[in-house]
Amino acid sequence: MHLASNMATKDEEMVELQAMQRRLESYCAGGSVTTTDTGTMVFVDHQQVQHKVYQYHSQANGNILRDEGIGGGYVPILMHARKLLVSGLAPNTCAYKVTMDDGLTFRGVLNGMSERQHPGSVLVTALLILLVVGALTLWMVPKMVRWRTEYQMEERINRNALRQWRDPSASKRSTSSSQKAAITGK
């Protein structure tokens, strides 16, 4: 019975840790993440709202990870979090380790969106691609029509040459009939 209740507590902690991870990832989506020397993760989300996430010991709630907004208000995002260690891995990327009160640890990596991936720049890139494709289309269509006409004429000449090669008498007949048609047309 003791083992089953202990496993249920671990499962609940893992669910809470995964929910915290999803929340932190949502802050990174479309935004940025940085770390401070005091062990705080600072996020600027896609709506340019700043979030500071750090470990705090509350008299009422014990050890928690909390999200402090711009106005100074906060929301606990993880209960029973004894320690938070953060480190910057690269620009806009950080690693973190959360140690729970019972010793369970959870590690994660967060990657904010780079400037090149910013939705505005993606839109500009897509518009530039469409512009280039449109310009190439306008430039290529007349050339393609000319090439198709030249191909059809060349194909017709090749078919006539093949007919003449297979049946030399047919070419004389077609020549005489085409000459008659030319005379009649005049």
Detailed description of the structure:
With 186 residues, the protein is α+β, with helices and mostly antiparallel strands. It is built from three helices and eight strands. The longest helix has 48 residues, at 119-166. The mean pLDDT is 79.
Helices and strands in order:
Layout: H1 2-28, E1 32-35, E2 41-44, E3 50-58, E4 62-68, E5 74-79, E6 81-90, E7 93-100, E8 105-111, H2 119-166, H3 168-185
Antiparallel strand pairs: 1-2, 2-3, 3-4, 4-5, 6-7, 7-8
Helix/strand structural class: alpha+beta
The radius of gyration is 37 Å
Give the proportion of residues in helices. 40-55%
Main pleated-sheet profile? 5 strands, antiparallel
Number of helices: 3
Shape: rod-shaped
Count of beta strands: 8
Low-pLDDT segments, ≥5 res: none
Mean pLDDT level:
79
Percentage of residues in DSSP E strands: 25-35%
Please list the strands of the largest sheet in the order they lie side by side.
1-2-3-4-5
Query: How do the SSEs run, as a string of H and E?
Result: HEEEEEEEEHH
Separation of termini?
A: 111 Å
Provide a concise account of the structure shown.
With 186 residues, the chain is of the alpha+beta class.
